[in-house]
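Figure-free illustration: sequence to structure, shown twice.
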Amino acid sequence: MSSAVAAGDATRLRSATHALKGSSANLGLPALAAGCRELQQLSETGDISTAASLLTRLSEVFADTKHQLETAAFRNSGI
């Protein structure tokens, strides 16, 4: 996604956000899916000039989600 934003490639950004949105929704990760939905909707306009700030926010949501999943996995591992 970051390379698509850097290149100004709205089509590639739409494709990437659509894929991650679906995966996030299927895994029950609503905050991540919502951030992807927002970026996907922006990319569908063709003007992704404000996408960098949304991508930064999505990256933060991703990092937080990853941390939560890792913590839950560790707690459930019995280690």
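We now fold a second protein in the same way, so the two outputs can be compared directly.
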Amino acid sequence: MTPQRPVERADRAGALVADAQRLFKARRFDEALEAAQALMLLEPESAQAWNLLGVVQASRRKLDEAVAAHERATALAPD
């Protein structure tokens, strides 16, 4: 597998964020989780990705996972 160029990576990340948000708004939480997890694989140091994962996990009533994800987001972007 060839590494993605930065623009392709950013485009893919943006698409995954949009997908996760769309699925979340449609209350399709398991599918939103899949999109958020794919984003995490692509951008593991993204506070936005960790925050999104936390929101999705909270909606799935996975509160320990949600808190951990939000803590990681805060550590990555404390302001």
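Summary for the second example: The chain has a mean pLDDT of 91.
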